[in-house]
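Quick log. Single chain, no ligands specified.
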Amino acid sequence: LVTILLLVVMVLGYGGIVYGGGSQSVLFFKLNRGYSAGFIFALTAWGGVVSAGLYLLNALFGQRWERRWTQLVGAIMYAGGWWGVYEVHNTAGMVVLYIIAASGTTLWLWSMYVYIPANYPTRMRSLGTGWTDGVGHLGAWGGVLIAGALFSAADPRSFVIWITLPCALLPGILIAIFGKNQQSRALEELAQ
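-> predicted structure:
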């Protein structure tokens, strides 16, 4: 059952958090907000710097925070940030909200990369992680295609409402409710 949960979470997460919304962000900033390529590049670069700093802080605290809640917080940051990016029409607010969304992506994704292997016994850890992440990438394919179709066919709000929000929030909620508590537990104990 844990593999099925993780597959669903990764398909939705890759589709909504990592690639679905991210694949359309440049188009959104250029076509709907009129920002230059240089501005968009700087925005994404600074979003990466800030989110890397946040993840280093998360790594520093390590086992003090339960990963399930870190993933939920990351998903909420991403969804809330993108909702705000769409709703706010001034540059300063949009920059802050985009950086929040980018930080949410990093927090969710890298917490999942640490969370997934701990759910499998040692002899199956690489196989379980590989299949979960590999099959989960179908969400990347689907998220980009569906988000692109919605972005092209309708108001950009469609990709925010139908791809970004549910496919970001649902994985965080599923792990928070059904995932294993990993805080201060040994790998052998978790994999049982």
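The chain is about 80% helix and 0% strand.
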